[in-house]
Amino acid sequence: MSAAQGFRLRLRAQPDFRVDLSPLQPAALAGRDVGQVARLELRHANAHVELGELFDVDALSSEAPELRIEGDLRRFDRIGQGMDGGRLSVTGDVGDYLGAAMRSGDIVVEGRAGQLAACEMAGGRLEVRGDVGDFAAGALPGSMDGMRGGTLIVHGNAGVRFGDRMRRGTVLLLGDAGDFCASRMVAGTIALAGLVGAHCGYGMRRGTLVFAGPAPDVPATFGGTNHDIRVIWALLSRSLAGLHPVFQSLPGRAPRRVVGDLAADGKGEWLIAG
Amino acid sequence: MSAQAETTSGAGEQAVVRNGVTIDPTFAEAFPMKATRVLITAHNDTWARNAAVAMTGFATSVIACGCEAGIERMLAPNETPDGRPGAAVLLFSMSGKELAKQLERRVGQCVLTCPTTAVYAGLEDGEAVALGKNLRFFGDGWQISKMIDGKRYWRVPVMDGEFVAQETTAVVKAVGGGNLLLLARDTDAALAGAEAAVEAMRAVPGVIMPFPGGVVRSGSKVGSKYASLMASTNDAFCPALIPLAKKTELDAGTRCVMEIVIDGLTEADVSAAMRAGIEAIVARGGEAGVTRISAGNYGGKLGPFHFHLHKLLGAGAIV
Known about the structure:
The structure holds 2 protein chains of 2 kinds.
Chain A: E1 6-11, E2 19-20, H1 26-29, H2 34-38, E3 41-44, E4 47-50, H3 51-54, E5 55-60, E6 66-70, E7 76-77, E8 84-91, E9 104-110, E10 125-128, E11 148-154, E12 168-173, E13 189-192, E14 208-211, E15 223-225, H4 230-243, E16 256-260, E17 268-272
Parallel strand pairs in A: 1-6, 2-7, 6-8, 8-9, 9-10, 10-11, 11-12, 12-13, 13-14, 14-17
Antiparallel strand pairs in A: 1-5, 2-3, 3-4, 15-16, 16-17
Chain B: E1 16-18, E2 21-23, E3 27-41, H1 45-55, E4 68-75, E5 86-93, H2 96-111, E6 118-121, E7 127-130, E8 144-148, E9 151-158, E10 161-166, E11 168-184, H3 187-202, E12 207-208, E13 220-222, E14 231-233, E15 256-264, H4 267-284, E16 290-294, E17 305-308, H5 309-315
Parallel strand pairs in B: 2-16, 6-10
Antiparallel strand pairs in B: 1-2, 3-5, 3-6, 3-11, 3-17, 4-5, 7-11, 8-9, 9-10, 11-15, 11-16, 12-15, 13-14
Helix pairs in contact in B: 1-2, 3-4, 4-5
C-alpha cells in the first residue's frame, strides 16, 4: 500500500467504552499508508484497541494532511487535541475535549460536541456546526487559563461557563449561551448572536464581549462609558464581519459600551450592538 | 544640508540633450538605510495631515535630525485599517536602532498628542520595532490590549476618547540619498522646475523627498575646512563661487541650482522617482529655464547604489 497525505475513517462499530482519539493527528499521519493507520493503537477505557477494529480506513487523494471521520463519535473524546496543522473534519457528533489545546490547523465538526470543546485552544480554527457542551473555550480542570488563541465558531448553542477564564483568541457563538458565559474572562473576544444565561461576565477581568443579537441585561457591577470608540469598533467589527455572515452588519452599527466586572476590579468590556 | 558631494562624470561619456535640457553623463550615489512606513488616521483629513506634518517635522537630513521623514501620500478612507482618512508616512534612518528611537519619539509627541488619531504599521514584512508597544504606558495601567486578526493593538485612554496604536511596525532595508541637481538660468525658473519635478515624483509610491517642499538649496559636500563640520557647502555648484572655487561645475549662464533628494523603500522606487523628475523637467523643456540636470555622487566609492542619469533616460519614455 502506498503512502497518503489524507485518510477517511468510517465508524464501523460503537466501542464498549470511551475511546481517546488524540493520536489521530492529520500532520502526524500524513505519509503513512492505510495499513499503518489501521494498526494505530487507541486508548479504550483502561485497554487499547487498534483503529482498524473500529473504523474502515481509506486513503484520500489530498495534497495536504487531512483526516475525514464519519459516524456517531459521541463516545470518542479528544478529537484533534493538541493538533498542530492539517485539516480534520467530522461528520457526526463528537465527545469531549474536541480541539483541546490545538495549536494550528482546521477542525470542522458537522454535529454537536461534548464538554470542554476548544478548552485551552491556542491556535488554528475550530468550527462546530451544532451545539457545544459546558466549559467550551474554557480551561482544563485545575488550570488557570482557558482558550489562549485561535478562532472558535459555534453555530449552535453553548452550555454553561462558555469562555470561562478565556485569555486570548476569538470566539463566535451563533446560538445562545448558558449561565456564567465569559466568567472570569482574562482577555480575548467573544461575539454572541443569541441570548446569554444568568451571570454573564461574572468576575470578568478584561476581554471583550460583543452582543450582536438581543441586548443582555447589564449587571449592576458593570458601568457605562460614553466615549468615542469608533476606531477600535471599526477594527473589531470588520474582523468579526469577515468571520461569519451573521456578524456582517456589525460595522454599520454603533454599540453601547459597558465595563466591568467592577466587583472584581475588572476592565472587561461589553459592546452591545443589538 | 544634503549629503551630496561633487559630481563625477562617466569616462568618455557625452552629455545628452532632450528638449533643450542637457542631462549630464553622471550618476547619483545613494546609501543603504533602514526605513518604515506608518499609517496615521484621524477623524478627518485635516487632523490626519496635522499629525503627519508634525511627525515629519525637522526630519530633512540624518546629518542632524536623526531621521529623514515625509508624507508619502494622503490616504482615502477605503485605504486605511479603520476606514477613516489618513496619511502614509515614511521614516528613514541610518540604523534600525536610531529609527526605532525616532519613531517612538515622533509618534509619542506628534501622533499620540494629536486629536482623534490612530497609528498603524504600514509594512507587513520586516523586523518588528515598537510602535504602540511602549507608548501604551502613557495609559498608566488603564491601557487595554486587543488582538484582532493576529495583530495586537493598544488602546490608551486619552481625553478625547482612546488612542489606538498597533503594537509594532516593520523595518526594512531601504535606499537613501538618490538625487537630482537642477541647474537653471534664475531663481524663478529653478523653483518652478523643482516644484514640477517634486509634484511628479510624489506620485511615485514608496519614496519621499524629505527637504522643505521636497527641495534643498544647500547641497553639501563631505568635509569642511573646519574640523568640527562633517559636511559643508557644495562649492562646485554654487553660482556665487564660479570665479573663486578651485573647481566649478557651472557656467556663467547658471545662476541658480536646486537639488531634490529622494529616499525610497527600494532601489527601484528611487529609480522610478528620479525618472519621473527628469521626465517632468524634460517635458517643460530647456526654454522653461532649467537647462541642465546633473546628480551628486562621491565618485562611486562610498554608496553601493548608483543611479546613472543616462540609464534612467534609457529605461523610461522620455521625450
